């Protein structure tokens, strides 16, 4: 819901860092990989109930997640595709989205490992993530087939369908469960319900656009 509004604020510092990294040999996929490693370390910290360490690692992971695209846009192309103007690639987009969804589910799984008394609500939240993720990716597949394009969220490797719960809101929830782990069930219930509404809205949007 807030991704498009936050994008102009986020892009400026990320682009500044990416320009400094230009020519350093650091590739977008390296940045994606580093962000994923930070995410795995965050999950491990949560499993051991090291919440403040997990919080820092989550924020580092998400900074890397935003930085990889900026690095791609500011690095000389090495693509095998003729006419490529940057290192942005379909494979890079693929790595990015796979890493994102594994990260989101992994953090919730790790929380449940560390606090098994919250396992039921953790399972519910992961179920809700599957709904938002599948409705998002399925729409992107059909949008690509029909030639739809939209760069409201910034230049992306594929179509980004908006919703109530997007990346910004999900990151906020992960931050909140690190700061207030005792409130996990309430946070998961509220955010899970919003994820369900997002999934329903995306299905209805797909019905309007593709039906």
UniProtKB/TrEMBL annotation:
Keyword set, alphabetical order: Membrane, Transferase, Transmembrane, Transmembrane helix
GO term, biological process aspect, one: phospholipid biosynthetic process
GO molecular function: phosphotransferase activity, for other substituted phosphate groups
Domain of life from the UniProt record: Bacteria
InterPro entries: CDP-OH_P_trans, CDP-OH_PTrfase_TM_dom
Keyword RNA-binding: no
Keyword Cell membrane: no
GO CC, any one term: membrane
Transmembrane segments: 21-47, 93-113, 119-142, 158-177, 183-204
Protein's name according to its UniProt entry: CDP-alcohol phosphatidyltransferase
Species whose genome carries this gene: Thalassospira xianhensis MCCC 1A02616
């Amino acid at each position: 819901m807030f991704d498009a509004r936050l994008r102009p604020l986020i892009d400026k510092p990320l682009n500044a860092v990416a320009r400094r990294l230009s020519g350093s040999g650091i590739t977008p996929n390296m940045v994606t990989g580093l962000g994923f490693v930070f995410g795995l370390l965050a999950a491990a910290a949560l499993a051991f109930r090291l919440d403040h360490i997990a919080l820092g690692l989550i924020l580092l992971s998400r900074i890397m997640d935003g930085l990889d695209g900026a690095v791609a846009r500011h690095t000389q192309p090495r693509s095998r595709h003729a006419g490529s103007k940057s290192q942005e690639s379909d494979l890079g987009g693929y790595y990015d989205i796979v890493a994102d969804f594994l990260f989101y589910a992994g953090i919730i799984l790790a929380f449940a490992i560390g606090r098994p008394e919250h396992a039921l609500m953790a399972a519910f939240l992961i179920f809700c993530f599957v709904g938002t993720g599948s409705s998002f990716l399925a729409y992107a597949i059909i949008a690509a087939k029909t030639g739809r394009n939209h760069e409201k969220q910034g230049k992306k490797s594929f179509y980004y369908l908006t919703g109530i719960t997007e990346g910004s809101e999900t990151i906020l929830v992960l931050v909140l469960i690190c700061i207030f782990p005792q409130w996990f069930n309430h946070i998961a219930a509220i955010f899970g319900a919003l994820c369900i509404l997002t999934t329903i809205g995306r299905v209805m949007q797909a019905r309007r656009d593709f039906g």
